[in-house]
Amino acid sequence: MTLIAQPFYDGLAAYRPVKFTTMITLTDSAYISPVGYVTVYKDLVAIATDVPYYYSFSQAGTSSGDTDYTFYIDVQEFCQDSLAPTKELTTTFVEQGDNIVLNGDCFAEYYITVQYYAIDVPTNIFGIASSVSVDSSNSYTVMASSLNPQQDMNMLQYYGISGLQNGVFLTKSPRTLDVVDSDSSYLTGLTPHNITALNSFEVNLYNSAGGLEETGLMLMLGLTFINQLTLNTGYDSLALLTYDQGAPNFSNANVTYYTVTFGTAFLVGPSYVYGRQTEIFTYNRVTACNSLRNLRFSWTNLLGGVDSYTFDSEKDLVITTSFDTAIGALSWNAGLAIPDNKQDVGRFKTNSQAGSKYELLSKYLTNQEATWLSELYMSPKVYAVIDGVFIPVVIDKTETSIARHNGKIRLRVVAILSNDYIIPRI
Coil, strand, or helix at residue 219? Predict the structure, then answer.
């Protein structure tokens, strides 16, 4: 009896198989029809107990009279249910001016144990198969991420290897983005899969000629193993921070773009030496468009990070109303000089409902931009940023092109505000 197959790499996506294979050998004269009862642990606490898994197939054992039973145990549903499944904001939506936030609601350590039961042949009673002991798996970090079938089932390509500067942020956006200073943007990354701590990030401010104007290094909690963390990379947000090395002047009029990376800082003498562990993200500073045209969205992407984008071409705010109609008899006061009441109501509204939605049309997008923004239609959590506040919306169903031969695509988005108007009733 043994766990004969476990995930090869640590750092798994909750929306791909989190699968284990076990096999037990039973003597046919002692036990038949085994069932594996699985307990799933999250951060050492049992979150599902005695979940039955039936064997997938059996075959004759190596010894005469023995049978080998193989179980396939996939616990992804328990990982999904326990990782940020609520409708509230997750910790990936970082407030402006906050340091990097550890996204403890978006990842956790999981392992399983398996206790085997079977029918005792001599007594015909179903109970613990005493000839086999309890199986226990290794622990694995599971992220609230979804990987497409064409991708690997683990997050290896995102957390990178220390020293190779190849950590990839949890987004499919272009690596150069245009942002307004007051906007919030987000970068979510995973710590390297080794003993070197990811303990800092660096911000570099550049002029239009590519010259470095300002630089700042900020320390964060030193994290080993695999963890997920997010930084608000908006210009005004970064300006609110107090840096551990360097004092970047975010009011420098020469600054036209800036870069952000995550890495490891070592104290050498009086100064820190920074080693980049991730790819470089570049932000071009742009002026705000007419507020009558633009609307910015932030949403949870399929990888478990947060993306943001401003639609600034066409915007309509539309209200929708519905109600039922009721009819009542008019009153009549016989014998009075004016027997009827001209304000009396014969037909009136009941069950009045009203909602609002934004109808937007994007500017012309490249195939890469359109493919990235298509996740806005799929995301379970989308927020319109209105007056600096996250307003939950539902993106309406659609059928749209996201790649075209000439690369010129305009996306049409209908964002329905999640909360309807509250209408007084009669």
Answer: strand
The per-residue DSSP string of 356-384 comes to EEEEEE---B-HHHHHHHTHHHH-S-EEE
Residue-wise pLDDT tens digits, 303-344: 999 999 999 999 999 999 999 999 988 888 888 778 788 888
- DSSP letter for 184, please: -
At the second CATH level, the architecture of 156-286 is Sandwich (2.60)
Q: Which residues contact 381 (CB under 8 A, 6 or more apart)?
A: 87, 89, 90, 299, 300, 392
Instruction: Locate 91 and state its tokens.
Output: 């910790």
pLDDT given at position 182: 93
The encoded tokens of residue 330 equal: 């008019």
CATH 2.60.40 corresponds to the domain 2-91+107-143: yes
pTM, two decimal places: 0.87
CA angle, residues 80, 84, 89, in degrees to nearest 5: 150
Contact 107/3 with Cβ under 8 angstroms?
Answer: no
